[in-house]
Specification:
The protein is α/β, with parallel strands linked by helices. 30% of the residues lie in helices and 21% in strands. The structure holds iron/sulfur cluster.
């Protein structure tokens, strides 16, 4: 998977580094002073991740917990995200990461103790409120957990703060480490889903819908809270039929009544990412639609059209058995 592993001196003795080195025993390892000395120093084209992906292990410096943008999660409660990784092994054509870093290489930050301190300070600032933390704003929260090994740490942490909530957002089906944990009511694993046809066309290298549904079913059976993101919603021919089919599959695998929440969001890009999508995937079906610069500078479908899409999908969800209060609209 990786052509080289760079290890910052500051984490060279961390047990997880030994685990990763052993797992990739044939991959050359280089010790470095600081990730930022090498990562992104020279621009590496995004699509090089297909042939040449490097792994960086180190400590995250600066702000580790950040306030999430408005409408990021359930309204009325403070939302934060924390950063413990950069970049992703998957390749969704709309991915915001393609315009974000100078390099698609994977970075895993191992100073979870420092992140935990900031999480605790943030919780203390919002006494008596439910504070949400979202893992992995710049990565997939589960895809590499068998390597990064941080789940037991965060389960211990959030067990001590039952009022705070942690969301692990993923497109993976990698629940190997997660199912070893005792479920906690306040740790919710949320799966981003699209109709299977869309996953095949746009969410390159991600697990199939079926594999994700099997993983979700397993977690639900074990008592882990799960949630769903129908995001990004992309318009296509037979759009209503494909989402009707998706809801019917959800009903087959899951108890919809037990889903913590279902968020819905229509595809959107910053103008920088939109430019990258056109460059990296000029033939993408994504680009067939009409896009406009929107109220917040993002590139989206025209507002009446996206409200129509959201309305239709919400109706399908309600028809499938979801309750109105389970559904929220994302970034609108
Ligand atoms: S799973 Fe998420 S982070 Fe990974 S490529 Fe797809 S959109 Fe980007």
């Amino acid at each position: 998977m990786f052509s080289r592993i760079f290890v910052e001196k500051s984490v060279a003795n961390f047990p997880q580094v030994a685990v990763i080195k052993e797992r990739f025993s044939k991959v050359p390892v280089t010790e470095i002073d600081a990730i930022e000395d090498i990562f992104g120093r020279v621009k590496k084209p995004y699509l090089q991740k297909r042939e040449n992906l490097q792994l960086f292990l180190g400590k995250k410096k600066g702000t580790l917990v950040k306030e999430a943008p408005e409408a990021y999660g359930l309204a009325g409660e403070p939302h934060y995200y924390f950063i413990h990784a950069y970049n992703c092994i998957y390749e969704c054509e709309y991915c915001y990461l393609q315009g974000y870093f100078q390099s698609p290489d994977i970075v895993l930050f191992l100073n979870h103790d420092d992140i935990a301190k900031e999480i605790e300070t943030t919780i203390a600032r919002h006494e008596n409120k439910t504070v949400w933390f979202h893992a992995g704003e710049f990565s997939d929260s589960l895809a590499l957990t068998h390597l990064s090994g941080e789940l037991p740490f965060y389960f211990d942490l959030f067990k001590r703060y039952p009022k705070a909530k942690l969301e692990l957002r993923t497109k993976s089906a990698n629940i190997k480490d997660l199912i070893k944990m005792d479920p906690l009511k306040n740790i919710i694993t949320s799966f981003s889903l699209s109709p299977e046809k869309r996953i095949k066309a746009t969410d390159l290298k991600t697990p199939s819908l079926k594999h994700r549904l099997i993983a979700m079913k397993k977690l639900q059976e074990l008592g882990h809270p799960i949630a769903i993101h129908l995001d990004p919603i992309i318009h296509e021919d037979q759009f209503l039929e494909t989402y009707e089919e998706l809801f019917s599959e959800l009903k087959t695998y899951l108890d919809l009544n037990q889903i913590a929440y279902v968020s819905m969001g229509v595809v959107r890009f910053t103008s920088k990412v939109f430019h990258q999508v056109k460059k990296n995937y000029p033939k993408s079906e994504l680009l067939a639609a009409e896009f406009h610069s929107s109220f917040d500078g993002k590139v989206r479908y025209p507002r009446p059209f996206r409200l129509w899409l959201l309305g239709k999908i919400k109706d399908l969800g309600l028809k499938a058995g979801l309750r109105d209060e389970q559904i929220y609209l994302c970034m609108e």
